[in-house]
Design goal:
- This protein is of the alpha/beta class and 151 residues long.
- The chain has one domain: Rossmann fold (3-Layer(aba) Sandwich), CATH 3.40.50.300.
- The protein is built from 4 helices and 7 strands, in the order βαβαββαβββα.
- It has a 7-stranded mixed sheet with strand order 1-7-6-2-5-4-3.
- A hairpin with a 5-residue loop joins strand 3 and strand 4.
- Helix 1 packs across helix 2.
- It is globular, with a radius of gyration of 14 Å.
- It binds adenosine-5'-diphosphate (ADP) and magnesium ion.
- The site of adenosine-5'-diphosphate has 16 residues, from helix 1 and helix 2.
- This is tRNA threonylcarbamoyladenosine biosynthesis protein TsaE.
- Belongs to the TsaE family.
- InterPro entries: P-loop_NTPase, T6A_TsaE.
């Protein structure tokens, strides 16, 4: 599978990349975010929210699993870290097929529930400020998005 590599040196750059991505996604899109604690998954999601026209402050939904934000396109922000030991379906499909864009932090914990077509994003912490962001499109729609982002 083809991968697309990006590098950022600041939190702002990561947000900007996510903002650009926000201009390319459509309702019903699913983005997964992997990376260690402190890699920048929530930071990326904040940028995405800005790009989608979300006005409320986005912060980690650790205690709720999913938070919904109103925007030009709604944003469904999931952090499924707490589901690591469970195989509980909290109604994921309704979000994935909904009117919003879904972002899933720690998505590998709910692998069985993820749609086949999605954009897999991995954030690798290289040093305190440098991040390598690797995007793996799963499906033609996401392939197109990655190519546009890369230009
Ligand atoms: P996660 O959700 O993956 O646990 P957060 O987004 O909450 O991570 O935290 C990332 C932390 O790394 C923040 O404190 C942010 O300021 C810092 N940071 C430093 N450089 C970058 C960068 N290039 N991109 C994103 N975050 C960065
Ligand atoms: Mg987080």
């Amino acid at each position: 599978m083809e991968q697309y590599f990006f590098q950022t040196q600041t939190e702002e750059e990561t947000k900007k990349l996510a903002e650009k991505l926000a201009l390319l996604v459509k309702p019903g899109d699913v983005l997964t975010l992997e990376g260690d604690l402190g890699a920048g998954k929530t930071t990326f999601t904040k940028g995405l929210g800005t790009g989608l026209g979300v006005r409320r402050t986005i912060n980690s939904p650790t205690y709720t699993i999913v938070k919904e934000y109103t925007g030009e396109i709604p944003l469904y922000h999931m952090d499924v870290y707490r589901l690591e030991e469970s195989d509980e379906d909290i109604g994921f499909a309704e979000f994935f097929q909904g009117e919003g864009v879904t972002v899933v932090e720690w998505a590998s914990f709910i692998n069985d529930f993820l749609p086949e077509e999605r954009l897999a994003i991995e954030i690798r912490r290289k040093d305190e400020y440098t991040r390598e962001i690797v995007m793996t499109p799963m499906g033609e729609h996401y392939e197109f998005i990655c190519k546009e982002l890369y230009r």
